[in-house]
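U., I forgot to send this yesterday:
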Amino acid sequence: MALKCGIVGLPNVGKSTLFNALTSAKALAANYPFATKEPNVGMITVPDPRLDKLSELVKPQRVQPTTIEIVDIAGLIKGASKGEGLGNQFLGNIREVDAILHVVRCFEDDNVVHVDGSVDPVRDKEIIDMELLLKDIDTLEKRIDKLRKQAKGGKKEDKKLVEIGEMMLAHFESGRPARSLDLDDDGKELLKDMYLLTAKPILYVCNVNEEAIETGNKHTERFKELVKDEKAEVLLISAGIEAEVAELESKEERTEYLEAMGLSEPGVNRVIRSSYKLLNLITYFTAGVKEVRAWTIENGWKAPQAAGVIHSDFEKGFIRAEVIKYNDFIKYGSESAVKEVGKMSVEGKEYVVEDGDIMHFRFNV
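Result:
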């Protein structure tokens, strides 16, 4: 799966610090705008306690977790849609990702400059929203011009697409993003074909100081009120704490540090899991003495598609899938024990894989 999440936000809100903590990479994190010019890309492991449980039972030679790709994109400023700052580069990079992690600054610190002179996450969000929307309006207007020329041929289908495009344009001009459109199949196809920036699913990350990590502050309260109708998740993260945790060498040191902070796990774990969900991804497992492995698929995929993630031959020659539910495997302790009590099912090509399924594929090529 080559799906990617892009971290976006204004300059100096903590994007690169968060990226470093997520990936344990060393992207430049500096106290001035445009410290990130080229997008930094990192593969991050998706934390999954189920994989650990399966490994304890099976005791394989190796364990392979699943991953997603995270991209740290250059900071945007007002006027980006017209090419200001690194605008064209920023918008081009965002077009290539599948979902957006929008980081907003919700902490006060005189030592960290803000590109607009004061801390106001509501204003910051509105700046980025407007720049993305302006770019989408520009993209849509160009497409409508082409559709109008096509519609001169008199085809009903072309005329309908013009109507859909004009409806979408009115929606954008009222300040609403593409992800809030209610479209029929033709509209969805047109939307998908344009790769609009505001059509991408979004997760908001409020970067707070240590004191606000659990309860939030006045900035996070205002921000949550602003986005309450978007049906988007809002996470509170202290990028500074996450950076310090990432620097610690051992698991014991990290656990001790987090406990001292009153935290049960690193905040980046929540960001990763939420990003995975945002991309509409689920996990199935294969479990044997050689390897226990997590595999990433899109929610709703059928068994042959899931098999194809392992190898294309598995999908081409798919015969059946032997499926054990995760809870059954944990309850009975082994594949053979599950089989003995009749809890393993045999599924065909129409089986829709569920999150946590433990699968073994039979195929012939």
